[in-house]
Write a structure and sequence with these properties.
By secondary structure, the protein is α+β, with helices and mostly antiparallel strands. The strands form three sheets. The chain has a three-stranded antiparallel sheet with strand order 1-2-7. Strands 3-6 form a two-stranded antiparallel sheet. A two-stranded antiparallel sheet has the order 4-5.
Length: 98
């Protein structure tokens, strides 16, 4: 789902103007980014938990399914975010047909 799709759906459901909904969505995402950067974890009860994890440096042996020859490609150490669903969210997902 793209941001515009989310904004349109919330706007239609609530009756709020799309510009107001877009601004609230942008502010929410900014809050999430700053909270994760500061604390390393963001818990949303009923939805799940986002956690910042450190990924170690890797040397690639394949790139796009083909073996790397000559100079090895190195992926540097970096931060990433893991998401763990809440039990109620997981139950909802498990009960749906795709």
């Amino acid at each position: 789902m793209a941001m515009n799709d989310l904004v349109k759906a919330v706007s239609e459901e609530t009756g709020y103007q799309t510009t107001a909904v877009r601004e609230i969505a942008r502010m929410t995402i900014d809050y999430f980014k700053h909270k994760l950067a500061a604390d390393g974890v963001l818990e949303m009860r009923g939805f799940g938990t986002f956690k910042v994890v450190r990924r170690s440096q890797k040397t690639l042996t394949t790139l796009f399914g083909k073996p790397v020859k000559g100079k090895k490609a190195v992926v540097p150490e970096r931060n990433s975010v893991k998401f763990r669903m809440s039990a109620s969210f997981k139950k909802t997902i498990q009960d749906t047909q795709v």
